From TrEMBL:
It comes from Rhodococcus olei. The keyword Ribosomal protein does not apply. This is DUF1003 domain-containing protein. The chain crosses the membrane at residues 50-73, 79-99. InterPro entries: DUF1003. The keyword Manganese does not apply.
Amino acid sequence: MSDKRPDRSAQSARARLETPGSRWRGFHIDVEAVGRVSESIARFLGTGKYLVIQTVVVVVWIILNVAAVGLQWDPYPFILLNLAFSTQAAYAAPLILLAQNRQENRDRVSLEEDRARAEQTKADTEFLARELASLRLAVGEVATRDYLRRELDEIKSLLAERDIEDARVNR
């Protein structure tokens, strides 16, 4: 008997390829936590506070390696400092890209929600316009309060005139 269903291992492999980095050799990585941390790091890297801290560290590094003869762990071409900057850039760029991708996903979801809300608002507006048009037609055929007052006032004045004429005739 042949089973026509796809192999579960093939399905799980496909699911793993479609979901970025959820599990790796039994080690669970919380994608949302990594994303939140990367966003916080990316936000910090884009602040003036970070630039001031980095500038102070670089100035202190250079002063110690140029002026303090006994502490020169990184002489003039500052190769270790360049290596530190390269390492920082190698980690900062992917973290910033990850934060941008998460923001793009949030923007896409927000745009979809806005579109759905706009469609619903448009449908509601069209419905209300139809209802208002039907009410206008219905009100056009129905006696309004002002119309009834005018008619009653007219009847009242006719009755008053008739009473006056009857009073003249009966005298």
